[in-house]
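Quick illustration, no need to memorize.
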Amino acid sequence: MGKHLVFVYGTLKRGFSRNNALREQRYIGIARTQPQYAMYGYGGYPALVDKTLAEASGVNAENRIFGELYEVDDSCVVELDKIEGTDKGLFERREIALGEVTMTGLPTDDAVWKGLSNKTAQAYFFKRKLNGAADCGSLWVQK
């Protein structure tokens, strides 16, 4: 069974509505991305976008997004994919470029260590046009 380094930035963070999905996973710490992303409010959740989708929606993507890092197992990735609607084309899970990382827990898996060393993790990116969504800045704080 493999382990994955996952960056969460919205409802999956500690203290938020969907964090229960990560209850059995290992919390690694906090992180901030490279300055090439944007986050928009889309109903009750944030939508992370990169420069390509941002430009297609007529907005900029130059923010450093704050979030949390988790070491998750394969079965949790399957559950997170369902939560994020990857099968419905709402979000897609792919690599995100990290900047600063502050670890509060140590990973137990070589693949997770490699992600930390390479400053990359998996994250859920919004796939649809933003259609008037409000810019959330760098930190999602709605509960």
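Strands lie at 3-8, 26-33, 37-42, 45-50, 66-73, 91-103, 120-126, 134-135.
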